[in-house]
Structures are given as C-alpha cells and as structure tokens.
User: What shape does this take?
Amino acid sequence: MTRGGRKSARGEPERRCIVTRESRPRRGLIRFVIGPDDSVVPDLAERLPGRGIWVSADRRSVETAAGRNLFARVARRPVRVDPALADVIEAGLARRLVELISLARRAGGAVAGREKVLEWLKAGRAAVLIQAADGSAREKAALRPPGGPNTYVDCLTAGELGVAFARDRVVHAAVDGGGLAERVKGEALRLGGFRSDAARPDAGRDAAGDVPRDERLVRNG
Assistant: This one.
C-alpha cells in the first residue's frame, strides 16, 4: 500500500489499492480505517484518524477485499466486515453527491429543468450535465454534455436528484464551473463504480428497490 506523498504524473495524490495492487489517484479509491471495535469503517470524507486502507472505488473490488480477508491481512489482526459494506458505501456516496449538488444550487451554481439547463449549455456556463438514470432516454439524448472528461453524470435517480433541488423529481440539471464542479465529478465517478450493471446484479433498482436505472452511469463528454 502506498503511503505518504506519492503523486501521479498530473500531480494528484496516489494510493495503492489492496485488491489490484495498483497505484491510482485518491479520488478513484475508497479509504477505510479499522475502528476501535475492530470493524472496517469506510472513510468517504478521508478524515477519520488511523492508518488508511485503500480500495478501488467499485463494488467488485470492495467485495473482493472483504471476501478474501484482505482488510485483516493489511491490518495484521482480525477485523469485522459488514456483509452489506458495498451497499453502505453506495448509499453514502449517493448522499455525498446529492449534498454537493444541493450546495452548488444554494450558491447559485446549479440549475434544474430542461430549459434552464439548455440555456446554460448554450451559453457555455455548464461544466457538468447531470441527468437522472431513470429519465426518458429520448429526452436526455436531446441535451449534449459540455466538452472534456467526466462532464456527464447519470448515476442518480430522478428522486435523488430531486432532493438536491428540493423537488420530488428532477431529470435534467447542470453545475457551473465553480469550485464544486470537480468535486461533483469525483463523487460521481466513485458512485458510478457501485451502480454500474457490471458492478451489481440488481443495478436496475435503486436503494429503495423500486426505481429502474439506466445502464449508463457516468460517461465522458
């Protein structure tokens, strides 16, 4: 496991995944710590004290780490792993992404609704296009994300996206190029690793078990 200040060629801090043994930027991994009760605790905000254990931000890697007892090997002692650890992480990442979009909205840096989003896209103000996974594919195809990597996000349901805008449902939203845009992209990438069809057999249902999801979760613009 990589520790200390190792950075990628782009200057981003890197850590080594205990499953793949590959080093990659921190925003592509999940940090874990071992709690006082010897339980494996996901540290999504990367603020908890203790030695960090890093796993690639996708469901398969987390389940592999748990199934192969890798957390205990790295900690060098027996640990307790929640059988629903991957689900707990998914729910936590979804909350974080919704909270970031909500924060951007309150700061005037995010809008919802097809017409407002289209205006921002035409004006070049939108840095990230966000569309609900369970929205109409035809409607969503009418809007094109801005150029650049990871500028399109669709790993939230309309209900989840609605929470960010204090509405029941939102299908189309956009975030401007302010300081929150990169954080939104980063959290969306991490959440996408837990909500892709390849990552989970029940990817067609949301956390409540009754909202279908589009198979496309995060795509490049």
The two ends are 33 Å apart (CA to CA). DSSP finds seven helices and ten strands in the chain. The chain has two domains: 14-83, 86-219.
